[in-house]
Amino acid sequence: MFEKKCFGVITLFFMKRKKRFYLTLIELMVVIVLIGMISSVIAYNVQGSITKGKEMKTQQAAERLKEVIALEMSQGKTFEKFMKNKKGFLEKSGLVKKADALLCDGWGEAFKVREENGEIIVTSIHLGEDGKVKK
Question: Are the C-beta atoms of 71 and 93 separated by less than 8 Å?
């Protein structure tokens, strides 16, 4: 008889603890809002990194383009020859693997190249004459 009472008390003790918890609609909405806020912060930070990468690519490509043109001109080729066929000029130099990529800035806009007083100047919509990216 003692065993039955003891067993009954234990059973009642465990039955009281068996509560089920359900996620309410408000809790679910709070979780979704938090996930959205975290995602927007991450997206904002990534966007800044992408812009910095494009700026760096633009500056590096402009410098590389100046160097290749200057090297080819030092070997007797003219700037006018470059202006007539930019892609062919760069490919024939053997210094550039992807001429199309070098002729564009980080945003995909074509560089504007000109010569003033023997100096090669490379600009684009995003790159000023001073070699710095416009903001």
Answer: yes
Query: Residue 75: CA atoms inside 13 Å, Cβ hemisphere, count?
Result: 9
Contact 99, 86 (CB under 8 A): yes
Burial-class residue 93 by CB neighbours within 10 Å (0-12, 13-18, 19+).
Answer: middle
pLDDT along the chain (135 residues), means of 10: 50 57 82 95 86 89 91 88 88 87 89 89 81 69
Residues 6 or more apart from 73 whose CB is under 8 A from it? 79, 82
**Identity of residue 22:** Y
The DSSP call for residue 126 is S
So where are the chain's domains?
25-123
- Type of residue found at 122: V
Q: Which residue has the tokens 């609609």?
A: 25
